[in-house]
Write a structure and sequence with these properties.
9 helices; 6-stranded parallel sheet; binds zinc ion; binds ligand BJW
Length: about 240
């Protein structure tokens, strides 16, 4: 409780706040995290599917994984953690939400300044012509092919291992973190770079860093205030 009160004071006094979110914030909406329980799909680790090599070797397998995840996400609802961040944005002078998530639950919760570091699972992109389109998902749909009008293969518009992050998103995230007085790190194991590098960047730029996570993470030792618990319980208490 002492930690919670301290963190609340920092947040109330700050002009500029950044939240950096990961898969853990959507866990309470029923979306499995990558490295936690339920993170495996069949016998594959995410590192075996979320790569350009996996897609070249077996696009159907990779598409099956993404279609399965789209079904889960389409049926899910934003939870109290997503909603608390969206409500906080409406009254904060300068707030940016940087997310590694591709599920779109922050948008659905009403957040508007969302920087998506790893793309969007609701966008398809053609590997040949680079054309993009937003997917209108129909649960009943059985997808037999993912082909673009140009004949090229479509892929999910997300960032896989070994691929560069969208440059504009990365720059916005870096800029927001550099000017932030408080950075709230929620539901990420902080092992995937360059996103994880935003935590030490925040520290070296002088921000107070608050972590919301039921488990320790790669950076817990360097965090100013660790709040151990679920995002859906802690964020409403912290930001409400
Ligand atoms: C709760 C909770 C609750 C549970 N409440 N919390 C060193 C430096 C720089 C790079 C590298 C490096 N070593 C290796 C690399 C390369 C690589 C990398 O970082 N690998 C690591 C595994 C070591 N990085 C890359 O390849 C990146 N690109 C790159 O570096 O490009 C260089 C380049 C430059 C120029 C040209 C070309 C290339 C790209 C990384 C892309 C990551 N993509 C994925 C898939 C996205 C699409 C999809 O969704 O399918 O992104 S992988 C996956 O991991 C996904 C996530 O966004 C990301 C992070 O995971 P996250 O969110 O942290 O989830 P979990 O599961 O790890 O953690 C969940 C947490 O929640 C846990 O802590 C729980 O305790 C907690 N939790 N319930 C709150 N209720
Ligand atoms: Zn095309």
């Amino acid at each position: 409780n002492e930690g919670l009160n301290q963190a609340r004071v920092w947040l109330q006094q700050a002009q500029s706040v950044v939240a950096l979110t990961g898969a853990g914030i959507s866990a309470e909406s029923g979306i499995p995290t990558f490295r936690g329980p339920g993170g495996l799909w069949r016998d594959f680790k995410p590192e075996q599917l979320a790569t350009p090599e996996a897609f070249s070797a077996d696009p159907e397998l990779v598409w099956e994984w993404y279609e399965w995840r789209r079904c889960l996400i389409a049926a899910a609802q934003p939870n109290a953690g997503h909603l608390a961040l969206a409500a906080f944005e409406r009254r904060a002078p300068d707030f940016v939400l940087v997310t590694q998530n591709v599920d779109g639950l922050h948008d659905r919760a009403g957040s508007e300044r969302v920087v998506k570091l790893h793309g969007d699972i609701w966008i398809d992109r053609c590997v040949e012509c680079d054309g993009e389109e937003t997917v209108r998902f129909d649960n009943a749909r059985v997808v037999s092919s993912h082909l673009c009008g140009c004949g090229g293969l479509l892929r999910p518009g997300v960032v896989w291992f070994g691929e560069a992050l969208p440059l504009d998103a990365w720059h916005s995230a870096e800029q927001a973190v550099r000017r932030a007085e408080v950075v709230l790190v929620v539901g990420t194991s902080s092992v995937v770079y360059p996103a994880a590098g935003l935590v030490p960047l925040a520290k070296s730029a002088g921000a107070k860093v608050i972590e919301v996570n039921p488990e320790e993470t790669a950076f817990s030792g360097e965090i100013d205030c660790c709040l151990r618990g679920k995002a859906g319980e802690i964020l409403p208490a912290l930001l409400g």
